[in-house]
Amino acid sequence: MKIYLASGNQHKLSELRIALQQAGLDGCEVFSADLIGGMPEVDETGDSFEANAILKAEALRPQGSEEAFYLSDDSGIEIDHLNGQPGIRSARYAGDTCNDKANNEKVLSEMTEVPDGQRGCRFRCVLALVGEGLTKTFSGSCEGTLLREYRGSGGFGYDPLFLPKESDSTFAEISSEEKAKISHRARALGKLMEYLRERLSLN
Ligand code: IMP
After folding, report:
1. 72 within ligand 1 shell (Cβ under 6 A)
2. From the CB of 76, is ligand 1 less than 6 Å away?
3. Given pLDDT bands bounded at 50, 70 and 90, which one contains residue 163?
């Protein structure tokens, strides 16, 4: 089974390869979108992580072969007090040309007056796998609390503000190995691995 990753992110590609290796799924080979012309620009017009993940995977599909499969992910942070925002707009919450710092500052300022105990939030990740006769999504989440100030220098995005329930350290303070055990993306990947294992055993 041949899977192309609908993303330009090499980090996601290696995460996926490691997950396949750990799951012992030798029958699955993962390739970069670069091998089939690169990831095209996609307008993320969907109203859910699922819809946007499918849009990204479908956007790459015409560039590859019919027998192959195409995998993408869409993710973000949902803050309870902000009615689930930034959600699908996590990457561009402070504006279309914004960066992680601007997004974090916007969230922090909107949450200044919110007391401890009402700062619940979660990261969500949805993976979409598409191919001939197949459209399937796999989701994972990680519950936590939005802090009042930055802690840690690792990771990316909202990591320094996110304290997962399972730890006393933020996602920016824990190692990538630890994050890979509890993160939203790791949980979605786990469900994908289960699906691939079943599918490969049937063939
Ligand atoms: P996407 O790449 O279009 O799915 O955008 C995901 C956005 O959600 C990123 O730009 C980050 O702002 C945020 N995000 C998703 N996953 C994580 C994570 O593991 N840590 C920190 N921020 C994340």
Report:
1. no
2. yes
3. very high
Q: What is the mean pLDDT of residues 37-66?
A: 97
| Position 203 pLDDT exceeds 80 | no
Question: How close is the Cα of 141 to the center of ligand 1, in Å?
Answer: 12
Token code pair at residue 108: 């922090």
Residues catalogued as catalytic: 74
Q: How remote is the CA of residue 125 from the centroid of ligand 1, in Å?
A: 9
The answer to whether the CB of 131 is under 6 A from ligand 1 is no
- Mutating to test ligand 1, I would choose from 41, 74, 77, 78 the residue with most ligand atoms within 8 A of its C-beta, which is 77
Amino acid at 43: D
Percent of the chain with pLDDT over 70: 99
Q: Give the mean pLDDT of the chain.
A: 94
What pLDDT score does 79 carry?
98
CA distance 192 to 195: 5
From residue 124, alpha-carbon distances to 3, 60, 135, 187 in Å are 22, 23, 19, 10
Distance 10 CA to ligand 1 centre (A): 15
Neighbouring C-beta atoms of residue 152, cutoff 10 Å: 15
* Whether 75 contacts 138, CB under 8 Å: no
pLDDT band at residue 14 using 50, 70 and 90 as cut-offs: confident
Residues 6 or more apart whose Cβ sits within 8 Å of residue 18: 180
